[in-house]
Amino acid sequence: MSERPTIVLVHGFWGGAAHWANVIVELDQRGYRSIRAVENPLTSLAEDAERTRKMVDQVNGPVVLVGHSYGGAVITEAGDLPGVTGLVYVAAFAPDAGESPGQLSQEMPPEAIQNLDQDSDGYLWIRQDKFRESFCQDLPENEALVMAVTQKAPLASTFGDTVSAPAWRNKPTWYQVSANDRMIAPDNERRMAQRMSPRRTVELETGHASLASQPVAVADLIEEAAKDATGS
Q1: Residue 167 carries which DSSP code?
Q2: What is the dotted CATH code of the domain comprising 6-230?
Q3: pLDDT score of 2
């Protein structure tokens, strides 16, 4: 069998690479030894995409790019590299050319949009007392508290950054919909998934942080993309 691809995980707004912790452990237990997680600055789509490209460029061999939330916009922008064999979207934005996450959210406003606050420096936060109900309502309170306190706020202007040439038009895709998502409207996720014509769409009864609450199902989808890359 061909060598397994490297899996590169890309986080979204209000978190860092450690949001992938449960998925990383699950994939490692399945024998995936080449896993990397990008730490995005969340300062602009261009800078985040460039950080992701640099990570992919360090890999010898095929790469499966996986994006959660805003990370979907990042892999859409950065996923055109030759070594990328597939794109996996986990409750994620998948903008088309000229679209931004902010535009897509305005078209179908998410339930928790009123729980966002912009600070005087231009960073956008989820109110700590509303974090669990907004982002990860199906996680235990202690885990949600840690996420809330350690959240990594994006520059609000990043919401308006548009995709240039969407990689999903030329690469195989997989999409996971979170049916109880309050950060991206579930119907918005379904709409974005449908227009990509993914190899598979999986819908989970979970909130936005499916990578933390449903790591086995998310890893299943990633593994499918990885096996597709090697023809196994």
Answers
A1: G
A2: 3.40.50.1820
A3: 56
How high does pLDDT run on average in the chain? Answer: 96
Tell me the C-alpha distance between 88 and 116, whole Å.
27
Bridge partners, residue 164, by sequence: none
Q: Is the pLDDT score of 230 beyond 90?
A: no
Other CB atoms closer than 10 Å to residue 175's CB: what's the count? 27
- How far the first Cα of the chain sits from its last, in Å, is 7
CA 12, chain centre distance (Å): 5
pLDDT score recorded for residue 231: 78
Pairwise CA distance, residues 138 & 74, whole Å? 26
The Cα–Cα gap between 19 and 132 comes to 14
Edge-to-edge order in the sheet of strand 63-68: 35-38, 6-10, 63-68, 84-90, 173-178, 200-204
Domain spans in the chain, listed from the N-terminal domain onward? 6-230
Helix locations, 170-231, DSSP H: 186-196, 210-213, 215-230
Question: Do 91 and 176 meet the contact criterion of CB atoms below 8 Å apart?
Answer: yes
Handedness of CA 5, 86, 20, 98 (dihedral sign): positive
The model's pLDDT over 37-81, given as tens digits with 9 standing for 90+, comes to 999 999 999 999 999 999 999 999 999 999 999 999 999 999 999
